[in-house]
Design goal:
Blueprint lengths: L5 E7 L12 E6 L4 E6 L2 H7 L2 H12 L12 E5 L15 E6 L6 E6 L3 H8 L3 E5 L6 E6 L4 E6 L7 H12 L8 E5 L2 H5 L5 E7 L4 E7 L4 H7 L2 E7 L13 H18 L6 H4 L3 H8 L21 H7 L19 E6 L9 E5 L3 H7 L8 H14 L3 H16 L5 H4 L9 H13 L4 H4 L3 H12 L3 H7 L2 E2 L2 E2 L9 H8 L13 H6 L6 H21 L4 H4 L6 H4 L2 H6 L1 H15 L7 H21 L20 H6 L1 H10 L10 H27 L9 H6 L5 H10 L1
Parallel strand pairs: 2-7, 8-13
Antiparallel strand pairs: 1-9, 2-3, 4-5, 4-7, 5-6, 8-9, 10-11, 10-13, 11-12, 14-15, 16-17
């Protein structure tokens, strides 16, 4: 190993085996005083909080004060996988969760990510890493699972941007011939200068012989990381095989894995073809059903969308080797484009590998900005990744800026000469470069939509109501890339999510408006109870959601019907078997047991939001464009649909009425629907009409800890 220049602290620990999915200790690092220590994993942590997101919430809760802000030294970054995380017998088991106080929402954010760091950390001896404090210089935190040593080094390299830094770290820490055992977490210069920074988790692609990266994108995790002056987190795994978790019943796990891997091989080509097309397969599906964001979510489809559909990306992806972001994932949807020549910015002329793009990046950097050139999307994708900027937030906030420009709120004088009209790639990529160096108008854009709304109203005279209607953010987080106007359930899936409008909590668009499986408020509320909790369970255990319902058994839709088919019961049974086979716990037998297991950390996070000064009904509001057409042009683009809805649903006769009158009537109806849905969801979740978990709910879920009860009593 080519070691860094200066060691600031060291901590030696006894290497032990993982048992039943747990290393049974977590790692604490304080960068203010270079303290390193380990903490035991308690029975309460395992029984109630399980792992992953649950461990992150529990550790952060006890690490901060009620008034801690995102950039205070007391804020923490916690990274944890989960008990199932790291097995190789079942697809999609390499996920980790990052938990911190968000710079964009000022409350608790959890962001899931692939890559090798989380599982490797466990194999090195720790179920989570908890980082607090701020360094006084750039540092690297290195966990050596071979030697049993944790070190804080002064970072010798000047590089920040990930595509270079990750390779430098590999050379610095990897033993000869064993690059695959090193994983790093980094950000880039974009995380230094914006509030929407992301974290890049690395994996060494042994077949292609270079680093690949996956992102913990949402909520500004990278911004917190760089604010602490962390150059990188690095872990070396002592080994890599499918039995390092030492499960309670390895035969059960192997059996479930064989069955699922066979199903993926047979069914994926018949369904979404994730192995060859990846998540961009959603582009044509969303466009067909008018759900693809176009021009800042004004529209749901576009004639040029055919230029960025999955077959285009399939032709660009390097498909010579399997593309899982963790060992053994037969779904292998994590594709990349090799030998891309960069056209702009500081790395112009370099030949690079671009990871992705995923659907969210294609839609956010493409259709939402009126950009339908694949190589333009790749350029933006590459720079967002290496700079450490969330592609979703960048795409959504830039769409907002473009609409404001076209509406006359912004002009070239304000933007420093950038003509930010829809489709203008040159202006968009320059805005990205400015954001990530903290220059020009990019310095304002990098603050995110919520702060831009305030600036545009106070300094440029914009109408605050208009900005609120079209600014696609909730809780301070920019929307992920689905048009929700026709799906009341998905409006709730975004607005009622704990961390903000991110689809990984509840994706109900198809179930709501295409297959129409949840027609009543009660049906929608039940779905907004079940699906967020099932997805939470993945985040507790170290699992990806894609193998759950993006591949189905051949007889799923004939054997089951309605909402039960959408749950994919055989896969639910798979996950129960995985959990029981790993942990040996015998109290998880049904899907309802899984949901109840997830309810505890889910409700705990809601209370955590309350503790931070958020988490009530007014915090669950959404911009009107999420609910319905916010402008006349928008209404008239789908006039036949909206006129019909006014007659059939709202009892309003549109004949002879102006577009403004019709819009007002539709708005009244749709906003009332959202409030009724909110009432139904709160009731189903065991919350008060203000969205506060009741004391009875806390007791039922065994999270009625005195400090939790105190927070709720103050809020009631």
């Amino acid at each position: 190993m080519n070691e860094p220049q200066k060691t600031l602290a060291e901590f030696n620990y006894e290497k032990t085996q993982v048992e039943k999915g747990y290393a049974n200790r977590t790692l604490y690092v304080n960068l203010s005083d270079n303290t390193i220590a380990d903490k035991p994993v308690t029975d309460t942590m395992k029984d109630v909080f399980i792992g992953g997101r649950g461990f992150g919430l529990w550790l952060l809760w006890h690490g901060i004060e009620d008034d801690t802000k995102w950039d205070d030294p007391e804020n923490e970054i916690v990274i944890s996988s989960g008990p199932i995380g790291g097995i190789t017998q079942y697809p999609g088991t390499g996920k980790s969760i990052v938990v911190t106080i968000s710079p964009t929402t000022h409350t608790i954010v959890d962001s899931n990510v692939g890559g090798y760091y989380g599982p490797y950390l466990k194999f090195a001896g720790f179920d989570a890493i908890e980082i607090q404090g701020k360094a006084d210089r750039e540092v690297i935190v290195y966990v050596d699972g071979v030697e049993g040593k944790v070190s804080i080094f002064e970072a010798p390299m000047e590089t920040v941007d990930t595509h270079i830094l990750a390779e430098e770290l590999l050379e610095m820490f990897a033993d000869p011939g064993k690059k695959q055992y090193i994983s790093s977490v980094t950000a880039g210069r974009g995380s230094d200068h914006t509030l929407i920074g992301c974290l890049n988790f690395s994996l060494y692609d042994i077949r292609r012989k270079h680093i690949r990266i996956k992102q913990a994108g949402r909520g500004g995790t990278g911004t917190v990381f760089r604010d602490k002056k962390i150059k990188a987190l690095v872990v070396k795994s002592p080994d890599m095989n499918g039995n390092l978790n030492n499960p309670a019943d390895p035969k059960l796990i192997a059996s479930v894995g064989r069955r699922m891997n066979k199903e993926v091989k047979e069914q994926d080509p018949k369904m979404l073809s994730m192995r060859t097309k990846g998540t961009p397969v959603l582009v044509e599906i969303m466009d067909e059903f008018d759900l693809l964001p176009v021009h800042n979510f004004q529209y749901g489809s576009h004639p040029e969308a055919e230029k960025i559909v999955s077959t285009v990306w399939e032709g660009l992806f390097d498909l010579d080797h399997p593309d899982g972001c963790w060992y053994g994932c037969t779904l292998s949807c994590s594709h990349s484009v090799k030998d891309y020549k960069i056209r702009t910015g500081p790395y112009k002329g370099q030949i690079v590998c671009v990871d992705g793009p995923e659907y969210e990046s294609v839609a956010g950097l493409g259709s939402n900005l009126g950009i339908f050139e694949p190589f333009d999307i790749l350029e933006l994708n590459f720079y967002c990744d290496t700079y450490g900027v969330d592609t979703i937030s960048f795409g959504t906030l830039t769409g907002f800026v473009m609409e404001c420009y076209e509406a006359g709120i912004l002009d070239k004088e304000i933007t420093g000469g950038l003509e930010l009209t829809f489709g203008n790639f040159d202006a968009v990529v320059e805005l990205l470069h400015q954001m990530c160096t903290g220059d020009g108008f990019g310095k304002i854009a990098g603050k995110g939509i919520r702060r831009m709304k305030k600036i545009f109203a106070e300094e440029y005279g914009a109408d605050p109501g208009f900005l609120q209607d079209i600014g696609m953010e909730a809780k301070g987080m920019e929307y992920s890339e689905y048009v929700t106007k026709e799906s009341l359930a998905q409006q709730g899936g975004y607005g009622l999510a704990n961390k903000g409008p991110q689809h990984d909590e509840a994706w109900l668009i198809f179930m709501d408006i295409v297959t129409k499986l949840i027609p009543t408020f009660e049906d929608k509320a039940e779905a907004l109870h079940y699906f967020p909790n099932f997805r939470t369970w993945f985040g507790l255990n170290g699992l990806c959601k894609l193998p759950w319902n993006d591949v189905e058994p051949a007889d799923n839709r004939t054997k089951y019907s309605g909402i039960e088919a959408a749950k994919v019961p055989e896969h639910v049974k798979n996950y129960i078997d995985l959990f029981v086979g790993m942990t040996g716990r015998q109290d998880v037998k049904t899907g309802n047991d899984v949901i109840q297991m997830s309810e505890a950390p889910y409700n705990f996070q809601r209370v955590f939001n309350l503790r931070m000064g958020f988490g009530k009904r007014d915090h669950d509001s959404v911009p009107y464009r999420s609910v319905g057409p916010a402008t006349v042009v928008e209404y008239e683009s789908r006039q036949e649909r909206y006129d019909e809805q006014l007659k059939e649903l709202a009892g309003f006769d549109p004949e002879g009425k102006s577009s403004e009158e019709k819009m007002a009537a539709l708005r009244k109806y749709r906003e009332e629907q959202y409030e009724k849905l909110t009432d139904a969801v709160y009731k189903r979740r065991g919350w008060t009409p203000e969205g506060i978990p009741t004391l009875e709910t806390l007791k039922r879920l065994k999270i009625d800890f005195p400090e939790v009860v105190e927070v709720v009593k103050k809020a009631l």
